[in-house]
Design brief:
Helix content: 40-55%
Structural class: alpha/beta
CATH architecture of the largest domain: 3-Layer(aba) Sandwich
CATH class of the largest domain: Alpha Beta
Shape: globular
Strand order of the largest sheet: 1-9-8-5-4-2-3
Order of helices and strands: HHHHEHEHEHEHEEEEEHHHEEHHHEH
Number of helices: 15
Bound molecules: pyridoxal-5'-phosphate
Number of strands: 12
Low-confidence stretches: none
CATH superfamily of the largest domain: Type I PLP-dependent aspartate aminotransferase-like (Major domain)
Number of domains: 2
CATH topology of the largest domain: Aspartate Aminotransferase, domain 2
Mean pLDDT: 96
Radius of gyration: 21 Å
Largest sheet: 7 strands, mixed
Distance between the termini: 37 Å
Length: about 400
Amino acid sequence: MTSSLLERCNFPLQDASNYREAIALAFERVIASGQVILSGGVQAFEEAFAAWLGDGFTAEHCVGVGNGTDALELALRCAGVTPGDGVIVPSFTAYATVASLLRIGAVPHFADVAPSRPVICPLEVERLLAGRHSTRRIRAVIAVHLYGEACDLRSLRDICDHRSVALIEDCAQATGTMYEGGSIGTWGDFASFSFYPTKNLAALGDGGMLVLGRQSDLSRLRTARRLRTYGWNREREAVEFGVNSRLDEVQAWILWAKLKDLSKSISARRSLAGRYRDLIGPWAGQEGISLPGDGINWKHSYHLYVITVHPMVRTNILSRGVADGIPYAVHYPLACHQQAYIAQRLEATPVHLPHTERLAASVLSLPLNPYLTEQDVQAVSSHLHALVSVV
Ligand SMILES: Cc1ncc(COP(=O)(O)O)c(C=O)c1O
């Protein structure tokens, strides 16, 4: 029986069914090991992930945790962020990015995105750091590689070094993105990854990785591992603050198996994205549509394929998509500073981020995952063309 476009768009289920054998084997390995928490699977995956990150990274730098939000929270804690400290963060991101710093009691300082990109603008970061208040020390900058698109890491690294603040890369959506020939996640003092089932490298449930920068000293490496388990030392004595956020053994073995295929799966995403560009590119400009693509020193991993369209056109596309069985989506209709919980807290000092607000009103995600076919991309492109040319 052949599957439909809608079924192929369900990446978590497609992926689970593609990796049925590896998943069964993961359970077998855990049962055979006789040790179900923080054992061979987590160790093997931390080693494999370090090798995948490349030169200078070892298993010591990679700490498997419960999810990407925890990985960010632990990165912030390792960076010394305490209640009341400021953290510069883009408002245009998954809400989880901001939730991680709120959990510590830190204060978000929202930076706008770059004028024609969905990622943080280094000039904005510089402006916020230059104007920082002495009462609210800014300790960290979170650079979110949204949709799989790389931030301007070279500029951000320079700014953070110059101002002595920690750079944290939120790579939840960017596993497989390349920057200046190396993997994303290797420029920050810390990086966080998510293996949520929709992500480029997907667990069959939750999972995450905290990555410590190459320069981390022994004390930082030890602290990060202790943070993941109640602040326990080897003797199981709590010597500092800690949480419970352990990567599950079964998930670790599944991720270990899938990591071997990651480059193949990113290539498939990139080639479908290339087809979208071939098919939509020739008429996109005249319809006011912009398409994503690589930068001069980085390569997109296309976790999401996000275009921008006129807001009124978007509303029409979304409703026709539902009727015609094409799951267009919006990531994200509200920026973080527009979410009720944050907006209430910003009431006294409202934030206005023009580029962010424009993006929130105009971004549109087209279906994309490695299980889609050439015909799917053609069908979506034609559907889109028919809708934008009648408006
Ligand atoms: C940009 C970004 N940061 C952080 C996270 C949090 O990851 P998780 O859902 O694994 O906690 C996500 C996941 O949705 C994300 O997209």
